[in-house]
């Protein structure tokens, strides 16, 4: 029996406890990492599996740093729950909800995005405005490590000046409102709202560690059955590898795992 098969069997046993949820990050987990944010697309075989699991699993949720509009367009499945901007907004049963405190930050974030776009006019630095937050990408630069330092030099004072949170991900720096929301709190809310007793979560990056830690603490408190599956890559942060209950290799590993899961459930 292969590793993927063992992980799938464990995940399937958790998802037999009802009500259950299968929750996942998007970029680097369901979608391969590509040079530009706008080129990302869900892996077609993963989309098929998620579509066929809808109805068999009580809640399938995508919890992402992207905006809801963006990720819904890229996934294109209406039966899912979408949680965007690292937990500041959600779309569930066709209803969109946003953290009202986050709305106050929209004009300021837009202004900062415009400022950054003119300051870093190289086409290799991409400023992605997501209404409630913004991302500055440097994957396409010739020397990402050096550009990251330059960007941090500019973004750290800006974050301080505007009281924004600065977070880092895979060749990206993000500015977010100073609101105590992250993928962990978003997942805890979802568990509470939908009365979930079992959750499997998949993710590849630092912001996913919040969700994995939240699951670990709810499991330790005896509240839920849970399993965190990390996606291994050259860019995987060490905290993800430490906190995940199991690891699969890249988006291909996720696709293989979900296909196994479909057969087992
Ligand atoms: O929480 P996630 O769903 O993983 O979103 C995190 C960020 O992902 C996107 O950026 C990442 O993917 C890009 C496309 O593959 C890649 O070019 C970039 O280097 C990655 O950081 C997205 O653009 C961001 O808005 C998300 O916050």
TrEMBL record:
- Under Enzyme Commission nomenclature, its number is 3.1.3.12
**Keywords of the record:** Hydrolase, Magnesium, Metal-binding
Q: Which GO terms describe its molecular function?
A: metal ion binding; trehalose-phosphatase activity
Concerning InterPro entries, the annotation shows:
HAD-like_sf, HAD-SF_hydro_IIB, HAD_sf, OTSB-like, Trehalose_PPase
Q: Which catalytic reaction applies to this protein? A: alpha,alpha-trehalose 6-phosphate + H2O = alpha,alpha-trehalose + phosphate
* Cofactors demanded by this protein: Mg(2+)
- Pathway participation: Glycan biosynthesis; trehalose biosynthesis
Origin: domain of life: Bacteria
The signal peptide here is none
Keyword Transport set for record: no
Enumerate the Gene Ontology biological process terms: trehalose biosynthetic process
User: What's one Pfam family here?
Assistant: Trehalose_PPase
Q: Which family does it belong to?
A: Belongs to the trehalose phosphatase family.
Give a short account of what the protein does: Removes the phosphate from trehalose 6-phosphate to produce free trehalose.
Q: What name goes with this protein?
A: Trehalose 6-phosphate phosphatase
Q: What is the lineage of its organism?
A: Bacteria, Pseudomonadati, Thermomicrobiota, Thermomicrobia, Thermomicrobiales
């Amino acid at each position: 029996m292969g590793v993927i098969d063992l992980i799938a069997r464990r995940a399937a046993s958790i998802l037999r406890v009802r009500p259950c949820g299968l929750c996942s990050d998007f970029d680097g987990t369901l979608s391969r990492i590509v040079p530009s944010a706008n080129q990302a697309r869900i892996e077609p075989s993963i989309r098929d599996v998620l579509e066929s699991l809808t109805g068999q699993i009580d809640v399938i949720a995508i919890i992402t740093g992207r905006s809801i509009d963006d990720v819904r367009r890229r996934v294109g499945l209406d039966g899912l729950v979408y949680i965007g901007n690292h937990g500041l907004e959600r779309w569930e049963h066709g209803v969109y909800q946003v953290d009202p405190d986050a709305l106050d930050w929209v004009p300021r974030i837009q202004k900062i995005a415009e400022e950054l776009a003119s300051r870093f006019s190289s086409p290799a630095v991409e400023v992605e405005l997501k209404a409630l937050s913004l991302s500055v990408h440097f994957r396409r630069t010739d020397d990402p490590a050096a550009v990251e330092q330059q960007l941090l030099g500019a973004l750290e004072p800006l974050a301080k000046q505007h009281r924004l949170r600065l977070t880092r991900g895979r060749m990206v720096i993000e500015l977010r409102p100073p609101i105590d929301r992250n993928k962990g709190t978003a997942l805890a809310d979802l568990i509470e709202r939908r009365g979930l007793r079992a959750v499997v979560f998949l993710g590849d990056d630092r912001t996913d560690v919040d969700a994995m830690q939240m699951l670990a603490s709810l499991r330790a408190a005896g509240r839920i059955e849970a399993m965190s599956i990390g996606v291994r890559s050259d860019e995987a942060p060490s905290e993800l590898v430490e906190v995940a209950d199991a690891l699969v290799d890249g988006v291909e590993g996720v696709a293989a795992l979900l296909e196994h899961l479909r057969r087992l459930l």
